[in-house]
Design goal:
This protein is mainly alpha-helical and 97 residues long. Helices cover 78% and strands 0% of the residues.
């Protein structure tokens, strides 16, 4: 499985091509989700008028870190949301009706 054949033409094996394709697809999906989450979280940050400038600055830093590490943060946030829903299920049902 050499990268060069006898004629010194560049050839790529199917396995390497598949790995590159998966890598590019993974990077694209990661960046698409990161961009989408950043837009949503930035909207909520800018919409809050009660925070001071220092709180906005610190929240912006946290927002950047959360956007970078979204594959770790989002599942934990979803678990917290499920816990909240289970705990307050009766009140939520009353508000729905």
């Amino acid at each position: 499985m050499s990268i060069y054949n006898a004629d010194q033409n560049f050839t790529i094996s199917r396995g390497l091509m598949f790995n590159l394709l998966l890598t590019y697809v993974g990077i694209t999906v990661y960046l698409a989700f990161a961009w989408s989450l950043l837009k949503q979280w930035l909207f909520f940050l800018m919409d809050d008028r009660e925070m001071s400038r220092k709180q906005h600055f610190l929240s912006g830093i946290i927002l950047v870190l959360i956007t970078i590490f979204w594959p770790i943060v989002v599942p934990f946030a979803y678990i917290e949301l499920l816990k909240f829903h289970r705990k307050h299920n009766k009140e939520i049902d009353l508000l729905k009706n």
